[in-house]
Design goal:
3 domains, Nuclear Transport Factor 2, Chain: A, alpha/beta, single chain, Rossmann fold, EC 3.1.3.24, Hypothetical Protein Ta0175, Chain: A, domain 2, sucrose-phosphate phosphatase activity, binds magnesium ion, 421 residues, Sucrose-phosphatase, binds alpha-D-glucopyranose
């Protein structure tokens, strides 16, 4: 990972379904809370890793459905595929490792003799992963029989049962834990082992993550029986593993606080940001607060007060301009005037805003370029713009927005003439 020039302060390695993503939370509030925390306090110097059982196809589908951040590293198909960055550049070194003592043809052939096993969809059959559904009561016997057969055929495979229904067959050296160990070795060779690593999971295929030495771990409150049983049998006395009392992403936030790994209060949980003394300015945090204010203003969750707007205006350069995604340009002062009129236009409606990939660069003494993706969910519709802001920083309590430039992210433009900021 070249984005960070030094070791990450925190690396979070999280499962997605029922861990980062709560499928029972229609409003995705815990995920949005995590997102705000990550972009405000961690994105700058930490690494976010998603580790999912999903294939690239199903992973991309989930990203379309849920307000997920862009991870630095994506581990898919139960630790058999590792990719880097938004472009999802594959790690070919990992593929080499997995080819050892693996023969997908033999695995498929032998497993298809078991009527108890039902093939999962074609998208979930990957070069180093063959996946089935199996009933809970049959899982153990089938696993034992299969292990025996593969051994006799000279293959070294790993069989993992998850979620009380999924059975995955992988090369022995694969799996979420092995993939993480591989990454940690890679970081070590670059002299960039993260200061802290927190693994997060809920089901059987996550168990391995918790057995990697040195890492902190959180089993979310809604963890599956098979993971809790694994923990009771193998890691009960490890003080670095906790069972959260909160579900999914809220459990991850809770664990950050429990292990004191850094800030653990999401900006979404702070109602009045004017409270508290400002010690130093963090542009990531400022951007998160700005768009939370924008969301709350339009949802009428804060007072319709000029105080907020005048403090925003005070932070804008009087001769500053803004280029909205639809083109043209207007002064920052005019943009605020237009914004004023939008108070409460999303009251009682589904409307959420979140920022992703907030990165700041000092482009001159005291002058910063902040770049990020701004997402808006309005009803069923999603729009995203790429935003660049030039900010001048004088001191901790004095920063000025000089210029704002927005352009639609390809394929995610809004065409309803909605307001922008
Ligand atoms: C995901 C994958 C599936 C796998 C399961 C458990 O649901 O789509 O193929 O069996 O995770 O690892
Ligand atoms: Mg899961």
């Amino acid at each position: 990972m070249d984005r960070l020039s030094a070791a990450a302060r925190l690396m979070i390695v999280s499962d997605l379904d029922h861990t980062m993503v709560d499928h029972h939370d229609a409003e995705n509030l815990s995920l949005l809370r995590f997102n705000a925390l990550w972009e405000a306090h961690y994105r700058r110097d930490s690494l976010l890793v998603f580790s999912t059982g999903r294939s690239p196809t199903l992973y991309k589908q989930l990203r379309k459905e849920k307000p997920m951040l862009t991870p630095d590293i994506t581990i898919m198909s139960v630790g058999t595929e590792i990719t880097y960055g938004d472009a999802m550049v594959p790690d070919n070194g990992w593929v080499e490792v997995l080819n050892q003592k693996w023969d997908k043809k033999i695995v498929t052939e032998e497993a298809s003799r078991f009527p108890e096993l039902k093939f999962q969809s074609e998208t979930e059959q990957r070069p180093h992963k063959v996946s089935f559904y199996v009933d809970k009561d049959k899982a153990q016997t089938v696993t034992q029989k299969l292990s025996e057969i593969f051994k006799n055929r000279g293959l070294d495979v790993k069989i993992i049962y998850s979620g009380g229904m999924d059975l995955d067959i992988l090369p022995q050296g694969a799996g979420k834990g092995q993939a993480l160990a591989y990454l940690l070795r890679k970081f070590k060779s670059e002299g960039k082992v993260p200061t802290n690593t927190l693994v997060c999971g809920d089901s059987g295929n996550d168990a391995e993550l918790f057995s990697i030495p040195e890492v902190y771990g959180v089993m979310v409150s809604n963890a599956q029986e098979e993971l809790l049983q694994w923990h009771a049998a193998n890691a009960k006395n490890n003080p670095k593993i906790t069972h959260a009392t909160e579900r999914c992403a809220a459990g991850i936030i809770q664990a950050i606080g429990h292990f004191k790994l850094g800030p653990s209060t999401s900006p979404r949980d702070i109602k009045d940001e004017s409270d508290g003394e400002v010690k130093s300015i963090d542009l990531g945090h400022e951007v998160v607060k700005l768009y939370l204010f924008y969301e709350r203003w339009r949802r009428a969750e804060i007072d319709n007060s000029e105080i907020y707007l005048s403090s925003l205006k005070a932070n804008c350069c009087p001769s500053g301009f803004c280029v909205p995604p639809s083109g043209g340009e207007i002064s920052l002062a005019e943009a605020i005037n237009q914004f004023r009129k939008c108070y409460g236009d999303k009251q009682g409606k589904q409307f959420r805003v979140w920022v992703d990939r907030v990165l700041s660069t000092e482009i001159g003494p005291g002058t910063w370029l902040v770049k990020f993706h701004k997402w808006e969910l309005s009803g069923e519709e999603r729009a995203c713009s790429i935003v660049s802001i030039i900010v001048r920083i004088k001191d901790a309590s004095d920063h000025t927005y000089m210029h704002v430039h927005e352009t639609w992210l390809e394929g995610f433009g809004a065409n309803d003439g909605r307001f922008w900021i």
